[in-house]
C-alpha cells in the first residue's frame, strides 16, 4: 500500500504588529494629569503589556533566543479513518522542534526525521522509512496574542501553555486531505531524552545465508521499521549467469523468501528502504522493488561504474560515496535524484574512498573509514562530516582504522561496525578483526561496545554488513569459508541479532 508523505511547503511568514486605533469620536480628548504616570492612552498601555508578554513567551520558548529543543510528547493523526494515536511511533519519537531568535525575528527548525504516512488507517500503517531534511521557517505571534504562534506559512500553529508545554497542530489544506490534521503536544527535550549508547551487545543466531559472494562481494544489508523485515542483496550464479539475489527475512518469525533478478551487474550492492520500495544500488544500476511484490523490479543505469562504494539517502536524493572504478573520481560524492534519475556532482572528499559507508543526521552526511585504493591495505581512521547545505567538510579522527565500515542511524546516534584486515610485514593478509562502536552526533564522542562475538585475530571471521531497526541490531558475521561439510551448498554466512536498550 502506498502512503502520501508529510510534505511541507516553506514560504516566508510575515510578522505584523497590530496597533490600537484612536476612539472614533473626534471630540473626545485624552487628558493627562500629573498622577497618571505619563500614559496618554489606555490602548498604548495595552500594547506595551502585550509586547512585554510576547517577549516573555519568546524567552521561554527559545531559551532567551539561543535556541531551545522540544520533543513530541503526544501525537494524534486525524484523517478520514478517524483519530489515530501515533505517539510512540519511531517516526514521531525522532522529531525535534527548535525555536530560536527574537519576538520580531523568530526561527523554527523542524527536524522531522522519518516522514509520517498520513494516509494510514492504523498506527502501524503510518510508519514510513523515509528520512527527510529539516524544515526551516520563521514563526510569529498571532494578532493580539502572547501565547499563540504560527509558522510554515500558517500551516503549523502553536499555543504556548507554559515554559515546558506547547500544543501544536499541522493542518493539511490541499487535495483530498484538506481539513485533516496532525495534533501534537510538545515538551522540553532534556539531555535524558536523547538516545544514549549502551556499552555491551549480546548477539544470538538469527538466520544463515548460504551464498559464496558475501565475504568477498560487498553485499547490501538493511532493515525496514515499517515492514519489520530484514533484507540482504548480493550476487548469485544461476545456470552460469550472474543474477541479483534478494533475501527477505521476517524479523519476528525468522522466515525467509528469496527472489532472483537475472541482471548482470558488478558485485557491490548497497541496499536501502525508502517509502514503500526496496532500492538496491549496484555498480551500474539502481533497481527498485515494491515491498509488496519483490518479483518485478524496475531498473535504470545511474551513470557510473562503481565498486565498494557507500550510499546515504535523504528525501529524494541518494548520495553515492566514492568507489570509482579504474581510479575515475574515487574521491567524489555524487547526488542521484531518485525521482528524476538525474546524476550530479556533490562534493569531492580530501582523498579517494573505497569501502567507506555513510549516513545522514540532520542535514549532515557522515562518512566513516575505508581505504584510498580498491582492495588497499591503507585502512583509514577518518570521519568526514559534510554539511549538505554548505558542502563544507569537517574531518574528525575515529578510534580505529576500518577497511570496510557499516553504519546505521538511530536518532542522534550512529552505530558503526567495521572490518579490519590484518597484514604481516610483507603485506599479506594474516587475519581479520572487527569493531562495533557508537558515535554521538551531539558531542562527537565515541563509545566502543563489548560483545560476545567469538572471532579472533588469527581467523578471517569478521562483519560484512549491519542493519538496525525496531530496537535490534543485525550483523552478517562469518569468514566466507565453505566449512559446513556440505559440498552441495554454498558457503554459510551467519546473521546475528542483538537487542538494543
UniProtKB/TrEMBL annotation:
User: Is tRNA processing found in the keyword set?
Assistant: no
* Keyword entries, A-Z: Kelch repeat, Repeat, Signal
Signal peptide span: 1-21
Q: InterPro entries, per this entry?
A: Kelch-typ_b-propeller (IPR015915), Kelch_1 (IPR006652)
Q: Which SUPFAM superfamilies match?
A: Kelch motif (SSF117281)
Per its record, how is this protein called by name?
Galactose oxidase
Q: Which PANTHER family match?
A: KELCH PROTEIN, RING FINGER DOMAIN AND KELCH REPEAT-CONTAINING PROTEIN DDB_G0271372
Amino acid at each position: 500500500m502506498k502512503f502520501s508523505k508529510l510534505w511541507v511547503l516553506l514560504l516566508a511568514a510575515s510578522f505584523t504588529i497590530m496597533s490600537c486605533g484612536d476612539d472614533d469620536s473626534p471630540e473626545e480628548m485624552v487628558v493627562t494629569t500629573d498622577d497618571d504616570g505619563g500614559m496618554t492612552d489606555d490602548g498604548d498601555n495595552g500594547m506595551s503589556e502585550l509586547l512585554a508578554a510576547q517577549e516573555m513567551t519568546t524567552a521561554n520558548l527559545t531559551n532567551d533566543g539561543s535556541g531551545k529543543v522540544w520533543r513530541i510528547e503526544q501525537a494524534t493523526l486525524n484523517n478520514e479513518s478517524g483519530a489515530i494515536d501515533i505517539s510512540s511511533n519511531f517516526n514521531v519519537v525522532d522529531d525535534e522542534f527548535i525555536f530560536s531568535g527574537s519576538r520580531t525575528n523568530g526561527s523554527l527548525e523542524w527536524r522531522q526525521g522519518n516522514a509520517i504516512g498520513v494516509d494510514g488507517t492504523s498506527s502501524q500503517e503510518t510508519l514510513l522509512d523515509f528520512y527527510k531534511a529539516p524544515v526551516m521557517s520563521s514563526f510569529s505571534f498571532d494578532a493580539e496574542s502572547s501565547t499563540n504562534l504560527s509558522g510554515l506559512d500558517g500551516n503549523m500553529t502553536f499555543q504556548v501553555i507554559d515554559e515546558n508545554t506547547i500544543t501544536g497542530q499541522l493542518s493539511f489544506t490541499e487535495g483530498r486531505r484538506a481539513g485533516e490534521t496532525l495534533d501534537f503536544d510538545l515538551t522540553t527535550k532534556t539531555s535524558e531524552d536523547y538516545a544514549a549508547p549502551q556499552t555491551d551487545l549480546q548477539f544470538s543466531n538469527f538466520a544463515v545465508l548460504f551464498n559464496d559472494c558475501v565475504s568477498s562481494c560487498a553485499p547490501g544489508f538493511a532493515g525496514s521499521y515499517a515492514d519489520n523485515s530484514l533484507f540482504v542483496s548480493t550476487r548469485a550464479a544461476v545456470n552460469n549467469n550472474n543474477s541479483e539475489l534478494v533475501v527477505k527475512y521476517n524479523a519476528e518469525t525468522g522466515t525467509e523468501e528469496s527472489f532472483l533478478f537475472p541482471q548482470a551487474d558488478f558485485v557491490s550492492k548497497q541496499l536501502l528502504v525508502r517509502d514503500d520500495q526496496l532500492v538496491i544500488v549496484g555498480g551500474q544500476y539502481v533497481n527498485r522493488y515494491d515491498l509488496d511484490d519483490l518479483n518485478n523490479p524496475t531498473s535504470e543505469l545511474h551513470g557510473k561504474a562503481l565498486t565498494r562504494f557507500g550510499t546515504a539517502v535523504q528525501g529524494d536524493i541518494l548520495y553515492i560515496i566514492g568507489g570509482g572504478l579504474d581510479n575515475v573520481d574515487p574521491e567524489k560524492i555524487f547526488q542521484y535524484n531518485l525521482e528524476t534519475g538525474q546524476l550530479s556532482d556533490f562534493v569531492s572528499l580530501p582523498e579517494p574512498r573505497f569501502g567507506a559507508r555513510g549516513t545522514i543526521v540532520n542535514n549532515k552526511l557522515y562518512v566513516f573509514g575505508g581505504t584510498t585504493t580498491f582492495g588497499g591495505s591503507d585502512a583509514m581512521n577518518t570521519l568526514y562530516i559534510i554539511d549538505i547545505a554548505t558542502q563544507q567538510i569537517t574531518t574528525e579522527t575515529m578510534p580505529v582504522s576500518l577497511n570496510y565500515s557499516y553504519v546505521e542511524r538511530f536518532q542522534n546516534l550512529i552505530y558503526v561496525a567495521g572490518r579490519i584486515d590484518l597484514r604481516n610485514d610483507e603485506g599479506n593478509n594474516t587475519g581479520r578483526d572487527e569493531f562495533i562502536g557508537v558515535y554521538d552526533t551531539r558531542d562527537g564522542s565515541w563509545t566502543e561496545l563489548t560483545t560476545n562475538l567469538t572471532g579472533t585475530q588469527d581467523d578471517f571471521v569478521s562483519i560484512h554488513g549491519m542493519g538496525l531497526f525496531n530496537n535490534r541490531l543485525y550483523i552478517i558475521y562469518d569468514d566466507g569459508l565453505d566449512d559446513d561439510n556440505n559440498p552441495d551448498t554454498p558457503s554459510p554466512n551467519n546473521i546475528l541479532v542483538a537487542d538494543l536498550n
